[in-house]
From TrEMBL:
Keywords: Cell membrane, Glycoprotein, Membrane, Transmembrane, Transmembrane helix. GO terms for cellular component: plasma membrane. It holds the Pfam family Anoctamin. It comes from Oreochromis niloticus. Belongs to the anoctamin family. It is found in: Cell membrane; Membrane. Residues 286-869 form the Anoctamin transmembrane domain. This is Anoctamin. Residues 31-56 are annotated as: Disordered. InterPro entries: Anoct_dimer, Anoctamin, Anoctamin_TM. The keyword Plastid does not apply. Residues 32-56 have a biased composition (Basic and acidic residues). GO terms for biological process: calcium activated phosphatidylcholine scrambling; calcium activated phosphatidylserine scrambling. GO terms for molecular function: chloride channel activity; protein dimerization activity.
Length: 898
């Protein structure tokens, strides 16, 4: 192979190839039977020989000898099947160097040609026992030292086991794992660990994790002091087509191999299958098969979904209360009453609008009462307490998982650096902790420059979002103008039915919400690539640092992108509109839009429903339909038939590769949803119910695509949900403020309460009892039609007998010494709103503080088990050290006597 291409290489390339000539001596190291590629290919003619390589066992998880387990699989194209290009020469050299270095590091390799594609070759990787022990110690993997002898506390639900057992995975299929006390593995103290069978002591997920660690650090090119390494770079450069651990069987067919645990099949049957939607998740098996990082995500998602059940029940109750009281509400009845709302003529809401009667918004007023009622106030306070309980109980549950999954002492400083970071370490600095010189990729000044560039880029994109919000606001004003004008000139027999159901405000709100959703999706796609590029440029040290940095950038952008339009409607729209004789104009051209006479709350509800619903539908399409179509197209193009026996590693190659960012997008989707559920829940009590329904589907969709449509992800260790934890805490703190401000400034709750307790003092109150009668009249100010500064008769036609019109505000009437200035009722309402915000915030924050204090983050039983485990570890290590010292003393005494 080397002699055929040497004449076509430069002298430098020939020198590099000669450097690896001696590595041919280790091709048979450890009985790998790794032959020269040319000889190997000549021996594989016909399907019969191909089948012999894996003994016609499609679910075999071993080398051809049936003894050595496959820990990882690499796929690349056969060089002899390619047309000659210079870049192929470089690729051959990299592959040769990389594989030789893998074997130098102790890994055993075996190559197999593809059954479906002659150009494709699969390289199977196996890690012998000594290599496993070495890297288990390097990665601080905790393994069992003794059975857990502490009695578990009985479950409070044990009396209902005859009912609850139907909501758990079948114990006959998925048995409960044995509990052990564990300690970090040490190669020279193997006798301390419970090693019954070396072949099964390290789980397949552990073996795959260690194999990937070696693959990420094996060099593929060495020139002087420059060393390039890592499977990631080879994959990005197209040298290898894929690198992945293999599934243990097909997801829908149980393997007949005696050594196959069939964990993938069990996960599909008891977790991912739609028929199991009502069952609890088998978290231990998920963690065992996919690793702690994926396990902790599904544990968090399941816990969040269970907690949403309580919020959904209360929210639905609030919605039902509002629905059945909408017709009996005093203010909605006054709006719809022909003798009250029908006789109130409202001022035009734009420069081309006409006068209109208040009862034309009867349906809108009734719909508003569904969401804007006293039950919403109770629900907003409930949700403020709910988010605190959610976070505190999650911390407890997370602490239990940390102990059960042996991640209690998983420290970030033990996490190895990223290969991309190590490859660019060209500077030296003194470690402030160890005092030892270490290599770093940049100086302190260089890091500041990188971070500054990243922050500047993020700020630029956030400003771009705000610019899009302004553009949509201008669109709202222009469309409101257009709708109003078109309804003005439409034939009255056609316009009246339209006006009853489609008001200019509603039409503007719906179309603007749809456009806002489309803009959000487009900006998300563009910014995603920018955020990844910035994070790569910053060059974080560890993968945790990388994910945290990317998480912060993406969340800041998504926060502004998704929530900016909602914040505009809630706190900006209709707040600076002036009054009919002196309106406020945006950009000197468009008159600032006003809220419906009932307020902007119904528009905020519409915006939330469209964005939440559209986002959920779009994400499910992306997560389910796209991977399924890609796999279907690949199978069609590859002409996969049932007549061919396809080995396990090639079946997995046909699946979609797992994402480089892992579960980042899954977390981001759920955290954005959590923001919708908590930040604006005062305007949309059904948000928790919609989120609950979406999450029940989301769990099974994520499970289905993970087990059926994607290759097995590389197992990773994780102690908690990472940077998402402080983000959730920040959202919960902000949610208290936003909901209090929505009730105070967006809804009509506070003005109603002020009127209810003190309306008889004001000029529009003519009753002596505390009732809501006359509230609509008191909330509308009077304006003289003669005070319009400019009236264009082509657009605005004032009836001859109309001298005044009404508008939503609290101002003195015409003829008053302070006409059109704010009256005392306005200032009382403002004072009541500020008092409400301050009181509610302090009460809720104090309640949150008390709950966080009295609910410990770590359960008492878990603390006892952690202490017991540390004690046993210290005792065992101490006894071992004493034995070693005793042996050394005896050996010294023997030498002295001799």
């Amino acid at each position: 192979y080397r002699g055929n291409i040497r004449t076509e290489m430069t002298r430098q390339e020939t020198w590099d190839q000669d450097r690896y000539r001696d590595t041919d001596l280790i091709l048979n190291r450890g009985n790998t039977e790794y032959r020269d590629r040319n000889d190997m290919r000549h021996d594989r003619q016909g399907n019969e020989n191909k089948h012999e390589e894996f003994n016609d066992k499609p679910d075999s998880l071993f080398f051809n000898d049936g003894v050595r387990r496959i820990d990882f699989v690499l796929a690349y194209e056969d060089e002899d099947k390619k047309e000659y290009e210079k870049r192929h020469v470089f690729q051959r050299r990299k592959v040769k160097c990389f594989e030789d270095n893998l074997m130098k590091m102790g890994m055993e390799l075996e190559a197999t040609q593809s059954v479906l594609d002659e150009k494709l070759v699969f390289l199977k990787v196996h890690m012998p026992w000594d290599v496993l022990c070495t890297y288990a110690e390097v990665l601080h993997i905790k393994l069992p030292i003794q059975s857990n002898d502490m009695s578990a506390r009985p479950s409070p639900w044990r009396f209902f086991s005859c009912i609850t057992k139907h909501f758990y995975p079948d114990e006959k299929l998925i048995s409960k794992e044995s509990e052990f006390f564990t300690a970090p593995f040490e190669k020279n103290r193997q006798d301390l660990f419970c090693i019954k069978d070396k072949d099964h002591f390290f789980t397949p997920s552990m073996r795959s994790r260690m194999a990937y660690y070696i693959l990420s650090r094996a060099p593929y090119e060495i020139r002087g002091n420059i060393k390039k390494f890592g499977i990631t770079k080879l994959l990005d450069g197209g040298v290898y087509k894929a690198a992945y651990p293999i599934h243990d069987c097909r997801f829908n067919v149980k393997s007949q191999e005696p050594e196959c645990p069939n964990e993938r099949y069990l996960l599909y049957e008891e977790w991912a299958h739609p028929k199991s939607f009502y069952k609890m998740q088998p978290l231990d098996l998920i963690r065992h098969y996919y690793g702690e990082k994926i396990g902790i995500y599904f544990a968090w998602l399941g816990f969040y979904t269970r907690m949403l059940t309580w919020a959904a029940v209360v929210g639905i109750g609030c919605f039902i209360y509002g629905y059945y009281t909408r017709d009996t509400s005093t203010w909605s009845k006054e709006v719809c009453d022909p003798d009250i709302g029908g006789k109130i003529v409202m001022c035009p809401q734009c420069d081309t609008c006409q006068y209109w009667t208040l009862n034309s918004t009867c349906n809108t007023s009734k719909n508003l009462c569904i969401f804007d009622n006293f039950g919403t106030l109770v629900f907003a306070v409930f949700m403020s307490v709910w988010v605190t309980l959610f976070l505190e109980f999650w911390k407890r549950y997370q602490a239990e998982l940390e102990y059960e999954w042996d991640t209690v002492e998983f420290l970030e400083q033990e996490e190895p650096p990223r290969p991309e970071y190590e490859a660019k370490c060209i500077h030296e600095r003194k470690n402030p902790i160890t005092g030892v010189k270490e290599s770093v990729p940049y100086t302190a000044c260089g890091r500041c420059v990188r971070v500054s560039i990243g922050m500047t880029t993020v700020i630029f994109w956030i400003m771009l979002i705000l610019a899009s919000v302004v553009a949509i606001t201008v669109y709202r004003l222009a469309v409101f103008f257009t709708f109003s004008r078109e309804l003005r000139y439409t034939n009255l027999t056609i316009a009246e039915p339209i006006k009853e159901y489609v008001t200019p405000q509603m039409a503007t709100s719906v179309t603007a919400s749809l456009i806002s959703f489309v803009v959000i999706m487009i900006l998300n796609t563009l910014y995603e690539r920018v955020a990844i590029w910035i994070t790569d440029f910053e060059l974080p040290r560890t993968k945790t640092d990388y994910e945290n940095s990317l998480t912060l950038k993406m969340f800041l952008f998504q926060f502004v992108n998704y929530y900016s339009s909602c914040f505009y409607i809630a706190f900006a729209k209709g707040k600076a509109v002036g009054y009919p004789g002196k309106p406020v104009y945006l950009l000197g051209k468009y008159r600032n839009e006003e809220c419906d006479p009932g307020g902007c709350l119904i528009e905020l509800t519409t915006q939330l429903a469209i964005i939440m619903g559209g986002k959920a539908i779009w994400n499910n399409i992306q997560e389910v339909l796209i991977p399924w179509l890609k796999n279907l197209i690949y199978r069609r193009c590859a002409h996969v038939t049932t007549e061919k026996v396809i080995p396990r590693w090639e079946q997995d190659y046909q699946l979609q590769p797992s994402s480089k960012l892992g579960l980042f997008y899954e977390y981001l989707e759920m955290v954005i949803q959590f923001g919708f559920v908590t930040l604006f829940v005062a305007s949309f009590p059904l948000a928790p119910a919609l989120a609950l329904l979406n999450n029940i589907i989301e769990i099974r969709v994520d499970a289905w695509k993970l087990t059926t449509q994607f290759r097995r992800a590389v197992p990773e260790k994780a102690q908690h949900i990472g940077a998402w934890q402080p983000i959730l805490q920040g959202i919960t703190i902000l949610a208290v403020v936003t909901n209090a401000m929505i009730i105070a400034f967006t809804s009509d709750m506070i003005p109603r309460l002020v009127y209810y307790w003190s309306f008889s003092v004001y000029p529009y109150g003519n009753n002596t009892e505390n009732t809501m009668k006359g509230y609509i009249n008191s909330s509308l100010s009077v304006f003289s039609t003669n005070d319009f500064q400019t009236v264009d008769d082509d657009y605005i036609h004032t009836p001859p007998n109309l001298t005044t019109c009404r508008y939503r505000d609290y101002r003195f009437p015409p003829g008053h010494p302070k006409q059109y200035e704010y009256n005392m009722f306005y200032w009382h309402v403002i004072a009541a709103k500020m008092a409400f915000i301050i009181v509610v915030e302090h009460i809720v924050y104090f309640t949150k503080f008390i709950l966080a204090y009295i609910i410990p983050d770590v359960p008492y039983a878990v603390k006892e088990q952690i202490k017991r485990e540390k004690y046993l570890t210290q005792v065992i290590l101490h006894e071992t050290n004493l034995k070693l010292v005793s042996k050394r003393l005896k050996a010294t005494e023997t030498e002295t006597e001799s």
